[in-house]
Design brief:
Blueprint (H helix, E strand, L loop, with lengths): L1 E4 L4 E4 L7 E6 L10 H19 L3 E6 L6 H10 L3 H18 L15 H13 L3 E4 L2 E4 L15 H6 L15 E6 L14 E3 L1 H13 L3 E7 L3 H16 L4 E7 L2 E3 L2 E2 L10 H5 L4 H9 L7 E3 L1 H25 L9 H20 L4 H22 L7 H18 L21 H19 L3 H13 L3 E5 L2 E5 L1
Parallel strand pairs: 3-4, 3-9, 9-10, 11-13
Antiparallel strand pairs: 1-2, 5-6, 6-7, 7-8, 11-12, 14-15
Helix pairs in contact: 1-13, 2-3, 4-6, 6-7, 9-10, 10-12, 10-13, 11-12, 11-13, 14-15
This protein binds one RNA strand through α1, α5, α7, β12 and α10.
Length: 480
Amino acid sequence: MQLYNTVTRKKEEFVPRDPGEVSIYVCGPTTYNYIHLGNARPLVVFDTIRRYFAYRGYRVKYIQNFTDIDDKIINRATEEGEDPINLARKYIEEFFIDSDALNVMRADVHPKVSEHLPEIIEMIENLISRGHAYQVDGDVYFDISSYRDYGKLSGRTLDDMQAGARVDVDQRKHHPMDFALWKAAKEGEPAWESPWGAGRPGWHIECSAMSLKYLGNNFDIHGGGHDLIFPHHENEIAQTEAATGQPFVRYWMHNGFITINQEKMSKSLGNFFLVREILAKFPSETVRFFLLSTHYRSPLDFDDEKLEAAGKGLERVKNCLRLIYESEKNSFADGGDTAGFLSLLDLRRREFETAMDDDFNTALAIGVLFELVGDINSYLHKAVPDSLVSSTALAGAVHLIKDINSVLGLFSLDEGGNILLEKNRPGGGELADGLLELIVRMRQDARSRKDWATSDNIRDGLKELGITLEDTPQGPRWKR
RNA sequence: GGCGACAUAGCCAAGUGGUAAGGCAGAGGACUGCAAAUCCUUUAUCCCCGGUUCAAAUCCGGGUGUCGCCUCCA
């Protein structure tokens, strides 16, 4: 497997720290609001990466943190007159509602900053004792000049950064780019006791402390959004390698940004979309499909038309599955060109793996999925009328689609492990289904009388209720 | 000002040296009572200029444009 490493700016062969195992840490959200589309991309992207490692037979250890102590949370809590930790807890619950909807698997551990103060404080003490950090009043800063490789991730030098400094420099710092490891508490803020007085951790130290705790030194993959490269991940590297004297992470991966109507998503532009707002308008599998239809490192522009187009594309995949399920009833142990079809399935599987092996090229992988759909459809197109559908062929097709789905995570499965096609669609239930069957039968009567007015009327009426009726040589079929 | 990314058909999007995957939309045909679904066929020389090469969307130089980071941000 090849993956693009932000540090080297090249694709590299993936070699895990421990054979057969992958350790992944992905920066999670600051929980002061419902998650937005920009949060959803890394969620879905790294979930897919994790799933592919599992598909490849790796044991995966996946950690995603919550930043539940932060200025933004404190500000928000102050506005709402609520306790910051409670506010954060609430949005952590909301986070899971959205991420579950997007079919994102839970991490093995979701560590919170508020529950890792001892680890954080210990790490800061370690940095101070090694001469990499210094205390000023109640604050502790990392001494950037003490770490020679500073800038290796983002590809900048200290000189570059000083030249471009746009922030007022705190005169107490040794170097303008020194960053806070510990912040002295201000009046009314949540605070924890520390050797430097009451305060709270700086933003970057949490990820270092928590990733080391759960994954150890030199773990495999650290991921996050492109914007975290600098300063967040740069600082993580500096403080961690300064503290441990060992390499921190083997591969750094960063997903590209989402834009809305070609503009950066931002509150001031009023184009800030929450995941649940989008899920109110589009099925979650469409959203996930859309997020994976572009390579994870490329920018991705969002608008309603693009999501609608994605939804129509996905419908093609679902139709194919419907055709398979429908044909299973009339399949035979063998028939037609089963061998030829099975070798085609093998080819598609190899293509899928090749695509994913190449830096998780989900866009290409989805292309392969569509090729597969075309293969299956055209097989059925020929085999169904001649009653030559092979159950072996169908089983192989379903197996492959399920395997691909286990990686892309587009469709949920029911209790029996079958792909759910009607998820999120209202109007199920025994009574409704029974009525529908009745109506369809009555329409068939009308059709046999060539009463086209009645039959078309029924079809149009059902369409308005969100039920599509299709007449086939094998009889009518309906779908929600 | 510093650092970096990208520019492929109407739209979305793969493709890093050998004459452009796939999806949406469109066109023609098959099937259908009509549709739908499905099948078959069809729609691009890859921002511009110059260079390297037998050969470039793919490498190099220049230009234009778009975007991101440098401050909280996925």
